[in-house]
Amino acid sequence: AEVKSYAAAGQALLLLALVPAYGALAARVPRRTLILAVTGFFLVCMVGFYGLAKLDVPVGVPFYLWVGVFSLMVIAQFWSFANDLYTTEEGKRLFPLIQFGMSIGAVAGSWLTGQLIRPFGLYEPLLLAAVMLTAATGITLLVDARERRRTEAARAGALTSGVLPAATAQYRAESGEFKAVVASEAYSKASGQFKVVKPGASEREEVKATKGAFRLVLQSPYLLPIALLIVLLNWVNTAGGYILDKTVSLAAADAMARGAAGGLTEGQVIGEFFSTFQTATNLLSLALQLFVVSRLLKLFGVRVALLVLPVIALAGYTVLAFVPVLALMRWTKTAENATDYSLQNTLRAVLFLPTTREEKYSAKQAIDGFFVRTGDMLHAGLVFVGTTWLAMQPRHFAMVNLVLVAAWLGLAVLIGRRYDRLATATAT
After folding, report:
1. Which residues pair with 181 in a beta bridge?
2. Distance CA 137, CA 43 (A)
3. How far apart are CA 345 and CA 333, in angstroms?
4. Which residues of 76-100 are buried (b: 16+ CB within 10 A; e: fewer)?
5. Do residues 169 and 186 make contact, with C-beta atoms less than 8 angstroms apart?
6. H or E segment at 133?
């Protein structure tokens, strides 16, 4: 469990270099070229890892680092693209449905992989993944062409998303059209108001991206709290995973010592537990996505929805801090992870709907990539200190989580208020 926690540091270091490179590319090429280039790189990697593995080259650690980057960057890019297509109101209506499709993919993908390994081998699913990613890219290009016809038919060719770079100082108004804003004044810290550039000959110069990914985040009164919330969310969630991992490991060892493992090895006891745990989590996530998320957003809005996961975490870790029982840990993490995979993932996309294209493509990669892994690194540091010097037990990590969740709740309230102001400012 400790080694798994430390491994995220390598992914964060990779993202520290890759996120600025992604932002620089997004500021130079249209979104379809960006998507083709990035997806093509990951496709080549998939085939490369398959070839190396078949040659018995040890690829375990490099693959783990790569897949951690892939799973963050490609998903972030998908949501940047979806944010670029739809207005704020369209996104709030459609994103829960899109996230439901992603949830089905998560369940189907894990099930299919398990079915393929026995008849075909451990590495062959990589080739199937490459085929499916290619198909998804083809669908992306079709959607890109359709939406440009729907929303940009009246604009000059040089000012459409098919020609302009992906990352520009534009936002999608509720009318469906892109409107340009001066990047340095995208929205006032106090009022959330945009300075809009009237369409004209100079618009192509005005819409150019002017900031790097990390600078965008650190200088924005809206994006910086989101980044900090993501750090805390992932720190809490990863710490909760460590608490569960450690407790399961100890319980499996104890079962072996008492002869209560039912003939299973220690590894099989652990594997059986997590198989049922992940199944329950994925099924609950699907149910929440299908029956709860869209209704919650429609009835209560983003401000209230942002508070749901931290309230669940606060209640759960309060219980774990004082009653560290495996059964309670299991269902606490099931509820937390299922809500994270469904509602919280949808909210992470919705929060970027009223932002500029530069923020959608560049800043979102920084937040959904580097800042996610920063939470992992902070947890890894706490695990090292806690287990090496402080003799912390799982319940002590739960107590630390309570402090982190309190800060998370405060940020959620702040972000909800600023989201409402920004969504109102971009409505016209």
Report:
1. 196
2. 11
3. 16
4. bbbbbbbbbbbbbeebbeebbebbb
5. yes
6. helix 125-152
Positive or negative: CA dihedral 55, 60, 66, 68: positive
Nearest to 181 by CA among 201, 192, 195: 195
Nearest Cα to Cα of residue 228 among 100, 425, 414 = 414
Q: Is the pLDDT of residue 194 over 90?
A: no
Dihedral angle computed from the Cα positions of residues 45, 50, 54 and 56, in that order, rounded to the nearest 10 degrees: 50
Q: What is each CA distance from 412 to 142, 191, 233, 351, 407, in whole angstroms? A: 36, 19, 11, 11, 9
- For residue 168, what are the β-bridge partners? 208
Residue-wise pLDDT tens digits, 49-86: 999 999 989 888 888 889 889 999 999 999 999 999 99
- State the Cα angle at 330 between 312 and 383, rounded to 5°: 85
Amino acid (one-letter) located at 28? R
Least confident residue range of 190-199, 250-259, 397-406: 190-199
Where helices occur in 197-293 by DSSP H, the ranges are: 203-206, 213-218, 223-258, 266-288
pTM: 0.86
**C-alpha distances out from residue 425 to 90, 191, 420, Å:** 16, 9, 9
Q: What is the SS3 assignment for 347-389? A: HHHHCCCCCCHHHHHHHHHHHHHHHHHHHHHHHHHHHHHHHHC
DSSP 265-308: -HHHHHHHHHHHHHHHHHHHHHHHIIIIIHHHHHHHHHHHHHHH
Q: What is the pLDDT of residues 270-305, one digit of tens each?
A: 877 887 888 888 889 989 998 999 999 999 999 999
- Locate tokens 């270091």: which residue? 13
Q: Are 308 and 119 in contact (CB under 8 A)?
A: no
Q: What length does the chain have?
A: 428
> Running DSSP on this structure, what letter comes out for residue 197?
E
Taking a C-beta distance cutoff of 8 angstroms, is the pair 342, 288 a contact?
Answer: yes
The C-alpha atoms of residue 117 and residue 96 are separated, in whole angstroms, by 32
